[in-house]
Inverse folding.
């Protein structure tokens, strides 16, 4: 999907480390490690996070692609070590002689990847699915996104995100009380957030083929974040009830420049950026790992039971918004590279 700014990540939630290899960056790009780490810190924060975030202090190590603070054109490798690995070395061992049932589980968590993952990869121990389907992998994606943001900064493009709703809560204060109530009940909460990118050039993406539309690329990037169930642009989610005369963002002239007074399109028309702020909205469902578990089936003996619980966040919507910023930054960096090809900056 990303033709120029390409990356792969690897790593299990309780494995030794998370790794990413990024390819396609021009040489000469300043890599500010403190900035990458500050993005990782943002992802770890937010009201409602669970025990794992007390254990980890995510920081990145760069093991290739950078010399004296700047990219040199070769693949850039990022590593984040999992501090919790210390407690999981035997369970996550790569050696056959260490095989153990400890921490195995067979009770599917409804809403998580356990069931479909076990059928797809033919696993009896659902830990084999949990480990990679965990949102832990979004830590390394956030680091990759931070590199994309550094590239975008070079073009004067910046981004931010806002939490719009958590449960029934519409303000910061309500968010906290909603999360407190859910935590007390052993429950979890989802929410709605928006990500805004400013100063994008007109014409990123294209209308000529479906797979070049930038809204399609962004939707895929955000929808595939664990637990995201809906993605929309601008006022798109209300588009069914607003007539065309009110929905479309009329054009006016101000000092010879085209201006808009509304942004219902969220900065995308015809699959291309139109120079307005890019506004992406998404809904994260509640995290499926519940302290008060749901009804399910035990795959080991096909009996009805309640779901596996290990540890979980009550709410991770703030973290999800940071991850969405990172994913969108990667899509936009790729689009910028497509229109500004160059091996150095
Ligand atoms: C996460 C790490 C995970 C979870 C969470 C996100 O760590 P652990 O499984 O050790 O608690 O806290 O992931 C989920 C709840 C999930 O269902 O995927 C992280 O680093 O963000």
């Amino acid at each position: 999907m990303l033709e120029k700014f390409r990356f792969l990540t690897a790593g299990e939630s309780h494995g030794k480390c998370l790794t990413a290899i990024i390819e396609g960056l021009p040489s000469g790009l300043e890599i500010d490690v403190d900035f990458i780490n500050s993005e990782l810190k943002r992802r770890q924060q937010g009201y409602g996070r669970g025990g794992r975030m007390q254990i980890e202090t995510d920081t990145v190590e760069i093991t290739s692609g950078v010399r004296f603070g700047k990219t040199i054109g070769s693949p850039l490798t990022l590593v984040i070590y999992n501090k919790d690995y210390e407690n999981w070395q035997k369970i996550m061992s790569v050696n056959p002689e260490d095989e153990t049932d400890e921490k195995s589980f067979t009770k599917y968590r409804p809403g998580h990847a356990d069931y479909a993952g076990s059928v797809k990869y033919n696993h009896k121990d659902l830990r084999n699915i949990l480990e990679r389907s965990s949102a832990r992998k979004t830590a390394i994606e956030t680091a990759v996104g931070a590199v994309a943001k550094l590239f975008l900064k070079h073009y004067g493009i910046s981004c931010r995100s806002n939490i719009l709703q958590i449960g029934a809560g519409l303000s910061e204060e309500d968010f906290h009380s909603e999360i407190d109530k859910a935590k007390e009940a052993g429950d979890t909460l989802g929410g709605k957030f928006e990500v805004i990118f400013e100063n994008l050039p007109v014409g990123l993406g294209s209308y000529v083929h479906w797979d070049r539309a930038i809204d399609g690329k962004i939707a895929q990037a955000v929808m595939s974040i664990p637990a995201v169930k809906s993605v929309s642009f601008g006022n798109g989610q209300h588009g069914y009830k607003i007539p065309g005369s009110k929905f479309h963002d009329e054009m006016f002239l101000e000092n010879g420049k085209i201006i808009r007074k509304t942004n219902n399109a969220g900065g995308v028309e015809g699959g291309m950026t139109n120079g307005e702020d890019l506004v992406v909205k998404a809904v994260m469902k509640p995290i499926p790992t519940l302290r008060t578990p749901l009804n399910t089936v035990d795959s080991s003996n096909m009996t009805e039971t309640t779901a596996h619980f290990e540890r979980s966040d009550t709410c991770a919507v703030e973290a999800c918004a940071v991850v969405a910023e990172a994913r969108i930054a990667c899509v936009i960096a790729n689009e910028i590279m497509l229109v500004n090809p160059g091996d150095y900056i």
